């Protein structure tokens, strides 16, 4: 079967429709994607490991099932990829660190198992910051931004963002503890969802901070992300922190351009002005105008203490990170990179008083956000306090975490769902992204709103030049 040479940039649901109608062979599509990865990824380093043999076997199985009338749904036969911290039976999982390079899981993470049950084809394992924190390990090649290699591709799910944007998969899985789905989604011009804490299972996933970590989809548009989330979401007996609330049909509930009608979007002018550059501010205002044209209503609000919540997120992350890594770190410290080492050392040094205060601040901020959402359906916010981030300036940004995480970390503290989506292109050639934040379990409304926005705009259809 001869495939369109640009099919790698089709949306997940477009490819799913072609597979379901038998116009595209999952095997031929997987072969084409593997060929593209081999040609393109050496210049991006989005993948840490390509699992070609198992991907082709999964594609063959999917093709046999589909062509015999046993179609499982929109992920069946579709090539996707996963961040290299999801346990996958028999496949090394490095966590982006030399300290864990020999780890091989004996069973799949729940998220991986659910993808397999949906018939997805897993192309490989995607690059990430070491331990899902800070920066890439210095002895591993850095993942690059396909839009501009001088700029950070976001993190920690760097490979997920870069691969999805560059047409090296049709969707991907990431994790988010302080912005790790949202940063790379914004940096690469893709759509990513950080779900409500507990909405997706963390079983079989290397943790950064157990009480903050979330697992979510990254895709080229809201509809594709919804299709992935429909498979991932839901209670898991192996993760007692997962929520028992029924999972609605997020993809089926999309309502075209009507999805934002009546949506009350909270606007805090002081919060938006705190650290936003002019280009992002202009793009955000233009996005608000689109939402208003679609029937949304803008409501003035006051965001609770962002600074205190960000500080609490940093303390909790460091402490829980140290708790997980300490058994390996105390005997193999030299295998850890400087950024993860710094987090572990800070975490080991916090007093019980500092930790107690951080958890109290978290509970207070969560309650304050619940009250805020009594009056609005969503809050709009930037992701970065600047237009992108140059790689040669990352050390400065990481050294000032409270500022760098100020628009993302608070909503890990509150456990709120956040959807990130592209809203423009900066003068330096990298995408601009913003987020909608909602109350717990408001993912259906967030997907509807962004899907409506994407019916009225084309930022999500832009592709990095040269790829």
From TrEMBL:
<dbReference type="InterPro" id="IPR023631">
    <property type="entry name" value="Amidase_dom"/>
</dbReference>
<dbReference type="GO" id="GO:0003824">
    <property type="term" value="F:catalytic activity"/>
</dbReference>
<feature type="domain" description="Amidase">
    <location>
        <begin position="29"/>
        <end position="446"/>
    </location>
</feature>
<dbReference type="InterPro" id="IPR000120">
    <property type="entry name" value="Amidase"/>
</dbReference>
<comment type="function">
    <text>Hydrolyzes indole-3-acetamide (IAM) into indole-3-acetic acid (IAA).</text>
</comment>
<dbReference type="InterPro" id="IPR020556">
    <property type="entry name" value="Amidase_CS"/>
</dbReference>
<dbReference type="Pfam" id="PF01425">
    <property type="entry name" value="Amidase"/>
</dbReference>
<protein>
    <recommendedName>
        <fullName>Indoleacetamide hydrolase</fullName>
    </recommendedName>
</protein>
<dbReference type="InterPro" id="IPR036928">
    <property type="entry name" value="AS_sf"/>
</dbReference>
């Amino acid at each position: 079967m001869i495939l369109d040479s640009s099919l790698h940039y089709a949306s997940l649901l477009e490819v799913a429709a072609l597979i379901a109608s038998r116009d595209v062979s999952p095997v031929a599509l997987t072969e084409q994607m593997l060929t593209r990865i081999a040609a393109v990824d050496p210049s991006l380093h989005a993948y840490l490991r390509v699992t070609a043999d198992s991907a082709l076997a999964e594609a063959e199985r999917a093709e046999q099932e589909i062509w015999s009338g046993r179609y499982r749904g929109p992920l069946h036969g579709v090539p996707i990829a996963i961040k290299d911290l999801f346990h996958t039976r028999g496949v090394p999982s490095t966590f982006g660190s030399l300290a864990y390079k020999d780890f091989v899981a004996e069973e799949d993470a729940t998220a991986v198992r659910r993808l397999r049950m949906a018939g997805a084809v897993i192309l490989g394992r995607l690059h990430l910051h070491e331990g899902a924190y800070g920066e890439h390990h210095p002895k591993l090649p850095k993942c690059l931004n396909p839009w501009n290699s001088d700029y950070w591709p976001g993190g920690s799910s760097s490979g997920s963002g870069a691969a999805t944007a560059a047409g090296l998969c049709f969707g991907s899985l990431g994790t988010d503890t302080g912005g790790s789905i949202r940063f790379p989604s914004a940096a690469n011009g893709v759509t990513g969802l950080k779900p409500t804490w507990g909405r997706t299972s963390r079983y079989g996933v290397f943790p950064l901070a157990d009480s903050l970590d979330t697992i979510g989809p990254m895709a080229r548009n809201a509809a594709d992300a919804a299709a992935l989330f429909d498979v991932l979401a839901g209670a898991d007996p192996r993760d007692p922190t997962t929520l028992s609330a029924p999972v609605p049909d997020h993809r089926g509930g999309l309502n075209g351009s009507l999805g934002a009608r009546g949506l009350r979007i909270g606007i805090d002018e002081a919060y938006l002005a705190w650290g936003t550059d002019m280009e992002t501010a202009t793009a955000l205002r233009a996005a608000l105008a689109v939402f208003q044209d679609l029937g949304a209503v803008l409501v003035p609000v006051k965001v609770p203490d962002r600074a205190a919540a960000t500080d609490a997120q940093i303390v909790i992350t460091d402490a829980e990170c140290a708790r997980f890594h300490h058994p390996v770190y105390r005997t193999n410290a030299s295998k850890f990179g400087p950024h993860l080492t710094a987090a572990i050392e800070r975490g080991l040094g916090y007093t019980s008083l500092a930790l107690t205060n951080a958890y109290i601040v978290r509970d207070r901020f969560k309650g304050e956000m619940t009250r805020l959402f009594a009056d609005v359906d969503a809050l709009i916010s930037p992701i970065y306090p600047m237009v992108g981030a140059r790689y040669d300036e990352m050390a400065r940004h990481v050294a000032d975490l409270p500022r760098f995480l100020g628009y993302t970390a608070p909503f890990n503290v509150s456990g709120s769902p956040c959807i990130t989506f592209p809203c423009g292109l900066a003068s330096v050639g990298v995408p601009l992204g913003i987020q909608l934040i909602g109350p717990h379990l408001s993912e259906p409304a967030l997907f509807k709103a962004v899907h409506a926005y994407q019916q009225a705009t084309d930022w999500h259809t832009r592709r990095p030049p040269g790829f």
